[in-house]
TrEMBL record:
<dbReference type="Pfam" id="PF00011">
    <property type="entry name" value="HSP20"/>
</dbReference>
<dbReference type="InterPro" id="IPR002068">
    <property type="entry name" value="A-crystallin/Hsp20_dom"/>
</dbReference>
<comment type="similarity">
    <text>Belongs to the small heat shock protein (HSP20) family.</text>
</comment>
<dbReference type="InterPro" id="IPR008978">
    <property type="entry name" value="HSP20-like_chaperone"/>
</dbReference>
<feature type="domain" description="SHSP">
    <location>
        <begin position="16"/>
        <end position="132"/>
    </location>
</feature>
<protein>
    <recommendedName>
        <fullName>SHSP domain-containing protein</fullName>
    </recommendedName>
</protein>
């Protein structure tokens, strides 16, 4: 199998969910000012101690740990333990340009893109622009 086919198989829902060991992290992504931006919902964490990021082979991995508080608790509606999310970066995203910000429980990551604010086509989107 070619690497392209293997990458596409890895993005299929059942296979992709196997890569997401740990509780899922809720994310959103968009293009803004020539950057690919990812926002991850990670409230109640110390980013220096509890969040780890890695960028390898065109993928971003976010790992976070919410630790159980030392006090006894009665009812727990908050999830604790490992949280993890792996996202494929758009073609040409510069992993070395990563900028981060953690404000009000939201981790914001931004990567420079070649070509500025051009929209990123969806994977597998083979539509051609209509002639004018």
């Amino acid at each position: 199998m070619t690497p392209d086919i293997l990458r596409r198989l890895g993005d299929l829902r059942p296979v992709a969910s196997l890569r997401q060991a740990g509780r899922p992290i809720r994310t959103e992504d968009y293009v803004e000012d020539g950057r690919f931006v990812v926002r991850a919902d990670l409230p109640g964490l110390d980013p220096a101690r509890d969040i780890d990021l890695s960028v390898e082979r065109g993928h971003l991995e976010i790992r976070a740990v919410r630790r159980v508080p030392l006090h006894e608790r009665g009812h727990a509606g908050i999830s604790y333990g490992l949280f993890r999310r792996v996202l494929r970066l758009p073609e040409g995203a510069d992993g070395a340009s990563l900028e981060t910000d953690y404000t009000d429980g939201v981790l914001r990551l931004a990567f420079k893109l070649p070509g500025g604010d051009k929209p990123i086509p969806l994977h597998g989107d083979r539509r051609r622009p209509s002639p004018d």
